[in-house]
Write a structure and sequence with these properties.
The complex is a heterodimer of chains A (336) and B (332).
Chain A: H1 4-7, E1 17-20, H2 29-36, E2 43-46, H3 61-71, E3 75-78, H4 90-98, E4 102-106, H5 109-113, H6 118-121, E5 128-131, H7 134-144, E6 149-151, E7 170-175, H8 183-195, E8 199-202, H9 222-229, E9 231-236, H10 240-243, H11 251-258, E10 262-266, E11 282-284, H12 287-299, H13 301-318, H14 321-331
Parallel strand pairs in A: 1-2, 1-3, 3-4, 4-5, 5-6, 7-8, 7-9, 9-10, 10-11
Chain B: H1 3-6, E1 16-20, H2 28-35, E2 42-45, H3 58-68, E3 72-75, H4 87-94, E4 101-106, H5 111-121, E5 127-130, H6 133-143, E6 148-150, E7 169-174, H7 182-194, E8 198-201, H8 219-226, E9 228-233, H9 237-240, H10 248-255, E10 259-263, E11 279-281, H11 284-296, H12 298-315, H13 318-328
Parallel strand pairs in B: 1-2, 1-3, 3-4, 4-5, 5-6, 7-8, 7-9, 9-10, 10-11
Helix pairs in contact in B: 5-6
The chains are: A alpha/beta (336), B alpha/beta (332).
Chain lengths: 336, 332
């Protein structure tokens, strides 16, 4: 007796080609990682665009567009690092649309607050613009009058972010840069550093804000997994101006959970629709609550590690980059 | 603190790797190799249209490579010589720039028609990786160069993985018919007469097989294998003589936790342990006997499938091979 899959089998009819056009930068590799998740279903072209191109007013746009033309994609994916008309021109995107080639874009909250206007210009040009928060869906819909804006939370690339079998050796870990726009988060890290002896911080520019006791520079990709796997608590702090966004979390959160590390994150409205508190992770709403929760979870090893395991399973089941790319391919009608 | 933490130094250099291949859905392993780099490097992949064999796009591709400015340029097994990325470009690419490396991986499939291309290529690359020892020896003899290395075919475990499903069919073969594979086609046709429950995926419509269902790649390859008791990994005669040759299909099948029954190639025992990770045959009669045996011994067969699966994960992933290449050229 054959099951439904075998009895209804239809052979693959056509190949799907997806082209991902991002910028390259070690700081943005996670963006690239997520785009690779198309490859179980599609032939992927990927051409990271130089950051800090020597002639910023004259980027090698034509060469890139020519490469995309030759690849003849069914889907062009503009990731969060897409930076507007100077990168891949609107005219070119229109040309693809006129040939029924699907174009989708991913919108990063960081850019909205910086006023990157291209995200408000993109909706009429692309099939779907995906955002990381329903708040942005509403804002962009109101602003553009377009309806093709959807919420799609970020997924972890489990080929890069995974558990490493090592002992827990540090209490607290935060991996992220001390950007000026994230001052509220930077201040909170310094407060945690004063309260707790064993906070380790990775990322750039922390020396510009003061002296942390354990600052070790950047840790990306596999180093992110190595550090997290040694930490009892992975701090996933969000600056205040992002903490108001509904259902928003930084990719740091799911990447941390994918390393089977207990994640303590900033609460954002409706986060409970994505994760169950004290089952997959824990969250705080005020700095004082964060301090209390750190004390609690450092004292309860077994309970903390159980939450970390459950969170890890939850991410593997529901928050992988692979699931996100599959959803996009389904949304634009390239797979069933 | 352990060694990792004590000696930790943030990485300051981000390697850039560019992988060039033709695109071709039915040969997914070609392209999938590239994705394995992305854990350590910013990776560009620019699959070349399968039907493009002229020089019309060569300049454009070379311009793109120059823009990306990779530390490592990897020419995939579909590289077909000067018409695609010119030899002149490859020479200039490395000239006076010692940090730039070029490697190529050479698949046996092109053995007859493409040997001259890879002979030409050896002096222009840092390392040429070949997938069997026979080609390694031949290339070393022809070129007198020592930068040819053996690297068995690897598996992309993001694509090839077990699917939870009941075993519903006895025998499965996924692969195409025709061309130089006539000896394999004959075996499939004979097996179809010998066994009622052989399912064959690929372009077998004209062979009059009882259960032929067209192509099954990537996710569908996993779905079909996970429902089969035995995954047949037959190798046509010309390739079965290649030393330590083991095509993608073998490891892809094992990565779906399916029992693999494989054509023996000389030295295969250096890669796998027989009846521990898989089983192999050397004649048609032996193949038939082994099928009967393994269909009757369910528990033993599934144990071998499990062991083979674990062995492939430990030893033959493309991730491990990408890391090996980066180490070989000094980028990791």
């Amino acid at each position: 007796m054959l099951d439904t899959y075998l009895s209804n089998y239809v052979p693959d009819q056509k190949e799907i080609r997806v082209f991902c056009a991002g910028r390259w930068s070690r700081l943005w590799t996670y963006s690239q990682s997520r785009s690779f998740a198309y490859h179980p279903w599609a032939v992927v072209g990927m051409l990271p665009f130089p950051v800090g191109w020597k002639d910023e007013n004259n980027p090698p746009r034509e060469a890139y567009e020519n490469a995309i033309r030759q690849f003849r994609p069914h889907l062009l994916h503009l990731p969060t690092t897409y930076s507007g008309d100077a990168h891949i021109s609107y005219e070119f995107i229109r040309e693809l649309g006129s040939r029924s080639i699907k174009v989708i874009a991913r919108h990063n909250e960081t850019y909205l607050t910086h006023g990157m206007k291209h995200f408000t210009e993109l909706p009429p040009l692309v099939n779907i613009l995906y955002t990381l928060s329903p708040t942005h869906v509403r804002t962009l819909k109101e602003f553009t009058g377009c309806t093709n804006i959807r919420f799609l939370s970020t997924g972890a690339d489990t080929t890069v972010y995974f558990p490493i079998d090592v002992e827990k050796q540090i209490d607290l870990l935060y991996l992220g840069h001390a950007a000026g726009a994230s001052k509220s988060r930077n201040d909170l890290i310094f407060r945690v550093d004063q309260e707790f002896d064993d906070l380790w911080v990775g990322g750039s520019w922390w020396d510009k804000w003061g002296n942390l006791r354990h600052w070790f520079g950047g840790a990306f990709q596999l180093d992110f997994s190595e550090w997290n796997s040694r930490a009892k608590i992975g701090l996933c702090l969000i600056p205040d101006h992002h903490a108001v966004l509904e259902m928003y979390y930084a990719c740091r959160l799911v990447n941390t959970m994918a390393t089977r590390t207990f994640a303590l994150t900033t609460y954002t409205p409706r986060l409970e629709e994505l994760f169950t508190r004290k089952e997959h992770l824990d969250w705080y709403t005020t700095p004082d609550e964060l301090i209390d929760l750190i004390h609690y979870w450092l004292k309860h090893d077994d309970e903390r590690e159980q939450v970390a395991r459950q969170g890890y399973q939850h991410v593997l089941k529901n928050f992988t980059a692979r699931q996100r790319t599959r959803r996009i391919l389904k949304d634009v009608g390239l797979i069933r | 603190m352990d060694k990792f933490m004590r000696e930790y130094k943030p990485k300051t250099v981000e390697p850039r790797v560019m992988f060039l291949s033709r695109w071709y859905y039915i040969w997914p392993a070609d392209q999938e190799f590239a994705y394995a780099y992305h854990e350590w490097a910013t990776t560009a992949i620019l699959p070349f249209p399968e039907e493009v064999r002229g020089v019309e796009f060569r300049d454009a591709y070379e311009e793109i490579i120059s823009l990306f400015n990779p530390h490592l340029l990897h020419l995939g097994p579909t590289y077909y010589g000067d018409k695609w990325i010119s030899y002149d470009f490859l020479r200039r690419f490395r000239e006076h720039k010692p940090y730039r490396k070029v490697v190529a991986t050479f698949s046996e499939t092109y053995l007859k028609g493409m040997m001259h291309t890879f002979v030409d290529l050896v002096p222009m690359v840092d390392i040429l990786y070949v997938r069997n020892m026979s080609v390694l020896k031949e290339l070393q003899e022809l070129t007198g160069q020592s930068n040819v290395k053996f690297m068995p075919e690897g598996v992309d475990i993001q694509v090839y993985h077990p699917v939870v499903a009941d075993k519903q069919i006895d025998l499965l073969f996924l692969g195409h018919a025709g061309g130089h594979k006539a000896t394999r086609d004959e075996v499939i046709v004979k097996l179809d007469k010998e066994f009622d429950d052989l399912w064959v995926g690929g372009d077998w419509q004209t062979f009059g097989l009882r259960h032929s269902f067209g192509g099954a790649y990537k996710a569908n390859f996993c779905e079909w294998n996970s429902r089969a008791r035995i995954g047949l990994c037959l190798i046509p005669t010309p390739h079965a003589n290649l030393e330590m040759y083991c095509p993608y299909r073998v490891k892809n099948t094992m990565a779906t936790r399916t029992f693999a029954l494989v054509t023996y190639t000389p030295g295969l025992e250096n890669l796998f342990t027989r009846k521990v990770h898989l089983d192999w045959y050397e004649s048609y009669e032996e193949l038939v006997e082994l099928i009967h045996y393994w269909l009757k011994h369910n528990e033993e067969r599934e144990q071998v499938a499990q062991q083979g699966y674990e062995y492939v994960l430990e030893n033959f992933t493309l991730r491990q091979q990408a890391a090996q290449i980066l180490r070989d050229v000094g980028l990791m």
